[in-house]
Amino acid sequence: MIYLITAFYSEAKALIDHFGLKKLYEPSKFQIFSGDEILLIVSGEGILQAAIATTFALTKFGASDRCIALNIGICGAKEKKLSKGDVLLCNKIINHHSKKTFYPDILITHQMKEASLESFLHPVKKDTFFGEIEGDIVDMEGAGFFEAASSFLAPHNVQCIKIVYDFLAYEKIEPQEVTILVKQCMPFIENFINTLVDLNLKFCTNIFEEEKLRQIIEKLKSSLRLTASITFQLEKLLKSYIIRHENLPEEISEFFNVNVNSKKEGKQYFEKLKKLLIS
Predict the structure, then answer these.
(1) How far apart (Å, rounded) are the C-alpha atoms in residues 250 and 247?
(2) pTM of the shown model
(3) Which tens digits make up the pLDDT trace of 166-198?
(4) Going by C-beta distance under 8 Å and a sequence separation of 6 or more, which residues neighbour residue 86?
(5) Those residues with Cβ within 8 angstroms of residue 200's Cβ, 6 or more apart along the chain or in another chain
(6) Residue 243, phi then psi, degrees to nearest 5
(7) Is residue 71 within 8 Å of residue 167, measured between CB atoms?
(8) Is the pLDDT of residue 2 over 90?
(9) Measured between alpha carbons, how far is 178 from 45 in angstroms, rounded to an integer?
(10) Degrees, nearest 5: CA angle 66-139-127
């Protein structure tokens, strides 16, 4: 299932039209639209609303290894190095208020520019906001969506796509203009979705590698005396490597029979292994 989360109907309309989605009369406070393997939910404005809507969708309709969740919507740009209508894939997502920072796993090539996104609880206008803005672009939903979706789905399957609407100086958002901007970006969005679907299909159909992966994780966890949290990081790194290279590096066997005497030493070996896996 591909989950699309937008804040407003004006952002959703181009997606609904393009994918031929139909309104789903499901008892909930959200507008929901569905089609072949696609479910779109209109969350409403704000970090909390985005998190609630995302959690609702993934618990109500299910989450599997192949599921993809995308937050798609407009944003404000801090600098004019970007242009109105630019479609951006977010490579860093910051919750301005909790200071939590997230780094999406971007494992595929794509045709979009990349930018860091900072989410606020309120609209940001440069003539009334005097705080520091860390992100290249700002919105009010991305961080809430990403934190919620990441609790259910594989890291590479949770992504934010934003479209530049203004430069923090808007007076009023025009719904028709928003729909047109999203419509213009549909080739980029559809291509990104198709590439992610192909990637998941390729990875999930490799059952032998999945079983082999579990055995390797247990070997490394034991030999390097890894904690639960580092073992979780290891699993993500191994899966990412397999997705990029279709197999694991031969050098990984050198870590199977290491005699580690302390957790500190194990962590040092893990850092060496990490360098190998991110190459």
Answers:
(1) 9
(2) 0.77
(3) 999 877 889 999 999 999 999 999 999 999 998
(4) 77, 113, 163, 164
(5) 65, 66, 68, 157
(6) -60, -40
(7) no
(8) yes
(9) 15
(10) 170
Looking only at the bridges linking them, the beta strands covering 137-139 and 68-77 are: antiparallel
CB 89 within 8 A of CB 158: no
- State how far the Cα of 205 lies from the Cα of 197, in Å rounded to an integer: 12
Measured CA to CA, the distance from residue 12 to residue 6 in angstroms comes to 6
Quickly state the pLDDT bin for 206 (edges 50, 70, 90): low
* DSSP of 93-108: EEETTT--EE-----S
Domains of the chain: 2-202 (3.40.50.1580), 225-277 (no CATH)
pLDDT in tens, 117-138: 999 999 998 888 888 999 999 9
As a whole number of angstroms, the distance between CA 103 and CA 41 comes to: 23
The HSE-up count of residue 127 (CA atoms within 13 Å, CB side) is 4
Whether the CB-CB separation of 197 and 156 falls below 8 Å is answered with: no
Q: What is the pLDDT of residues 235-270, one digit of tens each?
A: 878 877 777 677 788 899 899 988 888 888 988 999
Confidence of residue 199 (pLDDT cuts 50, 70, 90): confident
The token duo for 124 is: 């940001």
How high is the pLDDT of residue 121?
95
Burial letters 52-73, b for 16+ CB under 10 A, else e: bbbbbbbeebebeebbbbbbbb
Q: Say if residues 178 and 210 touch (Cβ distance below 8 Å).
A: no
Outline where DSSP puts E strands in the chain. 2-6, 22-24, 31-35, 38-42, 68-77, 87-95, 101-102, 113-119, 137-139, 158-166
